[in-house]
Amino acid sequence: MLKQWEEMQCPADTELEERLREVREKLKVQQLKVKEHRIPVLVLVEGWGTAGKGSLIGQMIKNIDPRFFKVASMSAPTEEEKRKPFLYRHFVKIPEAGKFSFLDSGWMDEIMREKLDGELNDRKYEERIESVKRFERQLTDNGYLVVKLFLQVSREEQKKRIARLAGEKDTKWRVSKNDHWQNEHYDTCMEAFDAYLKNTALPSAPWYIIDAKSKKWTELQALQILTEAIDVALANNALAVPILQNVFPMEKMPLLSEVALDKTLDADAYKEELKRLQHRLGELHNRLYRKKVPVIIAYEGWDAAGKGGNIKRLTGALDPRGYEVHPIASPEPHEKARHYLWRFWTRLPKTGHIAIFDRTWYGRVMVERLEGFCSENDWKRAYNEINEFEKELHDWGAVILKFWVQIDKDTQLARFNERQNTPEKQWKITEEDWRNREKWDAYEEAVNEMLQKTSTTYAPWHILESVDKRYARIKALKIVIKELEKVL
Predict the structure, then answer these.
(1) pTM of the predicted model, to two decimals?
(2) What's 315's domain CATH number?
(3) Beta bridge partners of residue 463, listed in sequence order
(4) Which domain, by its residues, includes 467?
(5) CA distance 466 to 305
(6) What is residue 181's predicted lDDT score, i.e. its pLDDT?
(7) 298 in Cβ contact with 390 (< 8 Å)
(8) Which of 88, 98, 317, 440 is a Cys-bridge partner for 281, taking CB atoms 3.0 to 4.6 Å apart?
(9) Is the domain of 329 the same as that of 210?
(10) Does residue 18 share a domain with residue 66?
């Protein structure tokens, strides 16, 4: 792709200035339409060292209201960022609906550096490529405009720029060791860049190669590409997206109606088991920290099923410095304005730590589906998107445990009434709980579909029979311990 690329003819100065004036004005008008139609725009600027990525972004943003954009310079990941999944630091930078984000280098630059430094073997490199393709496709499927620009300069031009910048005391800091290395190994880098661009050129997020030999010519090409892409995005704003076939290995799950809820545990046996299992989990938590294994525990279930009490017995065994519980409610405005998985990416644990989610990303295929908070196309796509999200976490090395806490309708009614009639428990019951109860059958249908379509072999669902809360708590502890022992 890069090797076959041919330079476009740069227009004469007069024509260049006139076309620049027109396209700058066009972007000024378009930014208001982007805001009105709530289209999030992500502009990724990659390219050779000294090709002028920062200068280009500086020119592009002059045409946009400062309230509508953010710029991020994605340097090498910090030690803290290295303890999160590869895509974490890039996913958290995605813009809100109606706004622009400009990235000065990004996931391509990070992958290329690691590949060329020999830090990524072929298998790991292929995994990264698949991660990037899923990431970019998920963004575009969820209404994002992703514009990917690669700034191309020749070996000779790069060499001249390095010498010019390094020769001035005020600019020599802009020349890195990597810039020198690239120029010395230009052909090797060209091969690697060309392969990456070919592998990650998606129909919905293609690569655009820009001739970066002069600032104004570079700006004109970039602004023309961006404004044309915005025109297409505005025209296609309401189009539905194809539902992808599941390609992940699945575990068969029973229907909720087939789950026997007569399992019980007497009080004495419960106390004895609880003490023993919590002691064991505490030991494993120390080893998790030492071996830097991340753990993600997700709880879903009926209202009043006992999720809170279950989580409490789990955390009672853990060092408070090594875990965090995330109670998930309705998204805040800034969360709602982004990809629905954004607020979960931002809550992921670092290696050696545990994140426990009380309600999860599965809200997309349950409450959002049933209450009409997203379109049918959105929630039908979400099964595959969630499987991809969890695959990303699994490939990172995370242990993923997903619990559905199951009770019957009569048990829920009895617990609702107890909460309603007990002053110190009344905060636990809301009008929304009663409304949701009226939709029990619809929710059960949605949960069954969720369990069937998202119980993958790398992140299976576990059903906790919770008519007897003691039984459910002990079962959860045993499952967590078993999975941690397996990975440790």
Answers:
(1) 0.94
(2) 3.40.50.300
(3) 404
(4) 256-487
(5) 6
(6) 96
(7) no
(8) 317
(9) no
(10) yes
